Amino acid sequence: MVHAYFSPAQAESYNHLASRTDSKFEVHYFGFHALAGTTRSILAVAGADFKSAIPAEGTWAAEHKAKAPFGYMPLLRETSPDGKHTLLISESEAIERYLARKFGLLGKNGYEELIINQFVSSNSGMAMNLVQKFFIVRDNAELQAANKAKLLEGPIPSWIAAHEKHLRENPAAVAKGLKDGNGHYVGETFSLADVKMAGLVDMVRVVTGDDMVSKEKTPAMWKVKEAMEASPSVKAWKATPEFKEISERNFQFMGFY
């Protein structure tokens, strides 16, 4: 029998919900940021009605894992305001792009979406590099130090230089004479690439400190972070007890907020 997440019966719900922005959302994931961080940030910047569904400690494998189509989270449940339609989505990238399209974070046309997706891919690659080579191995100080040295020799400086350049060259910023960009990759509004970058800045700074990433040294990247933090709906989300608890757990598990 086809899995519930891939059932043709979901097509009706998709058709009803895909263009709506007033749905209610449940983000099913553990009590830290990681693979659900971008999803929660998209919902926050969009001002969506959402909550985190965090499995009780020790219950995921026994009670929930078998129900997920690939045995992993995050999972997203979207429900119409009247409760009559529900859409289930698995896998972080699929969830992020679905929500980004719904809330207008993939540009104004196909070409802008193509550009945004390239920036997203680069940022996702750097995030995974940091997680695998630095954060996950933090209990092995010798290995972490060796990996950090390699990251600082090439991957991080190259990524910084490329993204700082592209942010500064955003045509919308150049047209207004903004030499350090306008806080966005494309145009003058938030995109999925902005959301990825805003979360990634703090991750990178755990590795580099102020030596490579700061308001003075990478002003274009810093503007993206500031733009996200200035969003009223993002401010509201970050002020909630839920966000603060998730951030604290993230620090305990990964070593950064």
Automatic annotation (TrEMBL):
Annotated ranges, domain GST C-terminal: 109-253
GO molecular function: glutathione transferase activity
Domain GST N-terminal: 23-107
InterPro entries assigned: Glutathione-S-Trfase_C-like (IPR010987), Glutathione-S-Trfase_C_sf (IPR036282), Glutathione_S-Trfase (IPR040079), Glutathione_S-Trfase_N (IPR004045), GST_C (IPR004046), GST_superfamily (IPR050213), Thioredoxin-like_sf (IPR036249)
Domain of life of the native organism: Eukaryota
One Gene Ontology biological process: glutathione metabolic process
PANTHER family the record matches: GLUTATHIONE S-TRANSFERASE
Name by which UniProt lists this protein: Glutathione S-transferase
